Amino acid sequence: AQRVTQPEKLLSVFKGAPVELKCNYSYSGSPELFWYVQYSRQRLQLLLRHISRESIKGFTADLNKGETSFHLKKPFAQEEDSAMYYCALPYNQGGKLIFGQGTELSVKP
Amino acid sequence: DAGITQSPRHKVTETGTPVTLRCHQTENHRYMYWYRQDPGHGLRLIHYSYGVKDTDKGEVSDGYSVSRSKTEDFLLTLESATSSQTSVYFCAIRVTSAGELFFGEGSRLTVL
After folding, report:
1. Are B107 and B20 in contact (CB under 8 A)?
2. Quick check: A96 and B102 CB within 8 A?
3. Tens digits of per-residue pLDDT, B93-112?
4. Could you give the CA distance from residue B47 to residue B60 in angstroms, rounded to a whole number?
């Protein structure tokens, strides 16, 4: 069964420290993975999509098929990065996305 | 940007009352979704639609029904609200063939 796991509920770092938000998945085939971000009480926004391999707001994510991971990284965290982050994976059918449980990132000054 | 609005944005109701949440899109996207967001559970799919009058269940569909009589509107109904349905509900539309979703701003429902 397809599944997305984000093992950390909360990640707290200091400003300027590196950040890595973990995402592991189970999927048969080549997955299209996404990271979404939700700032306080706002809508979820797309942060990154695996297929485009782009860097947004200094965040990058590399798909590691061997480890079935899609960890989100940023070398120097900023206070404005504080938010909820969700990793997401499409189901095989129906155009649906399944989401991980989310990781709350708190960047302290 | 895709246009999507949810209404109401906030609602407080009592157990046993019916509630309908509306999602309206201004573009012609085929796929629409209702998720609920709860601490510790992330986002869970309630129902989705792949066209007018074409809907299917998600992972937490019990106690919810949906309707889509027009492309632009996707309604979520709680026939008899319970306290366990207190949540934030997000509507989304699929904007790319790769599965990227664009979300509404959410509807916060409190069932007393």
Report:
1. no
2. no
3. 998 877 789 999 999 999 99
4. 8
Q: Kindly report the nearest CA distance between residue A16 and chain B, in angstroms.
A: 27
Q: Which amino acid is present at B38?
A: D
Question: For A53-63, what is each residue's pLDDT tens digit?
Answer: 777 889 999 88
Residue B62: pLDDT band with limits 50, 70, 90: very high
Q: Which of B11, B112, B40, B49 is nearest to A94 (CA)?
A: B49
Residue A22 amino acid letter = K
Query: Which of A31, A43, A42 minimizes the C-alpha distance to A88?
Result: A31
Q: Do A100 and B104 touch (CB under 8 A)?
A: no
CA torsion sign, A41 to A45 to A50 to A54? Answer: negative
Is residue B111 within 8 A of residue B83, CB to CB? The reply is yes
Is residue B60 within 8 A of residue B46, CB to CB? The reply is yes
